[in-house]
Amino acid sequence: MDMSQYKDLFISEVREHIQGMNEAIVALEGAPEDRERIDYLFRMAHSIKGMSASMGYGGMAGLAHKMEDLMDRVRKGAIGFASGVADLLLEGSDFLSHMLNDVDAGGDGQRDIDDLVSRLAGYAPPPAAEPARTDGSETGPSDGETPLPGRLQQPAVSDKPDSVHNVRVKTEVLDTLVNITGELLTHKNRMVSMSRELGSPALTEAISDLSRLVRELQNEVLKVRLMPFGSVADRLPRTVRDLAKKSGKEVVFRVSGKEIELDRGILEELPDPLLHLLRNAVDHGLEAPADRVAAGKNPAGTISLEARREKDRFLVTISDDGRGMDPCLITAAAVGKGLIAPAEAALLSPQESLMLICLPGFSTAAAVTDVSGRGVGMDAVRASVQAIGGGLAIESAPGRGSRVTLSLPLTISIIQVLLAVCGTMVVAVPVTRVVRTVDLTRDAVISRGKRKLFLLGEEEIPLMSLHRFLGIRFHPIKGPSVPAVVVEMKGHLVGLVVDRFLGQQDVFVKPLGRPLNRMRGFSGAAVLGDGQVIFILDPANLV
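^ thats the sequence. predicted structure below, dont judge the formating
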């Protein structure tokens, strides 16, 4: 029987089972008596064995069978769920994942698993019972905590279907729906422009109804693309566990807000920034257990990952209770590396000093490790976040830990933009990137040599011509005022002078193809109602 027609479904379901196994293994390390998780883990291994065998992937079936046998020994009470069992099962899940990737790429999923199979079959617990490891606190960790090493208490896991009927839909279908909705939005804007020119009340009323329906369709389609933050966060306890073992540190990992939903396009860009922030927290943020005890802290450090929504933004915060950062030391390091001038450093606030760690090439790591310190720094995190219309903020205090907050839009396909005229071009600035707009009187512009600036409250904001950034010939602005949009560029507020503003509008963002994608400072393009193509400005990458 030809089973190739079921290959995509097999790959999708086995990936889900492997992810569920990873989560259960890490959780069981801290709660080895959790019977429901033990049964769940046994069933996952059994399911992978059966599906792999039916599809003809004997290597995967054989490995899953040995993992199932080991869990059966745990389930029957022959052995306890010790860290040795967890290590073997996690190694097995990694092998299964690699074999599945090979199948997905057209291979047969075969790997040399003899050594691992032998160790799974011959596992014996150490002569003495492994001592329980705690985080040093008097009470156990709360729901959602993952002490690594330590204890874990989470809601019981069950693979029983709930009352919600789920249907698998290919991501390509969802992307097509979004594209069609975006095109409808573009044509709706076109009809709005035409109705203004024709001045027909009946046409205006019909287009108003159409606009309402398109907006409802847009909202529903974007809801379909929503995915829970847990689809990314659920992979992280395993990651933190591995990082903690490599660094020789004890970590309590807490996660909250996994149920919050946001656009799949945003979620797909989050794993790398989150992984780097967690690496920094484990490797650089937390002290070694002995150092923490000497400082009067619990030997196990705490790292928290919190997700929440605030109006039209999605906020992700990673915090730790480690050594923290000293703004003065950071500023001195930046000056020593020639990243900023001493005169400029003297003017920085503590918050601005902390943001210096986002400069390319900045690092205060004393040594390169397997975990971090290889030159890929916070600048990569900030660049990734800004590429999807987000921002980054850092808080820290020496001896008390650090907190990094990512502020992200809820969607990146259909967005609201501020339209501005700049010479012969109309450019669009995402509203999420606009701090504010200003209409400056001539006497509000301050000249210092060749520099122009203005006061926003008590802060001096540099004024720069957007024309020069875009290579457009600049004509002096006629009239009593100077319009500018205030945005963040490289951690600083800057006022970009434009000719005039045209207002706000919802647009469907299309990616730039070659060679336009090489242009600095643009993240995409859109079509206005009159057919004019506009570019979406990315202020963070203008310089």
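The radius of gyration is 28 Å.
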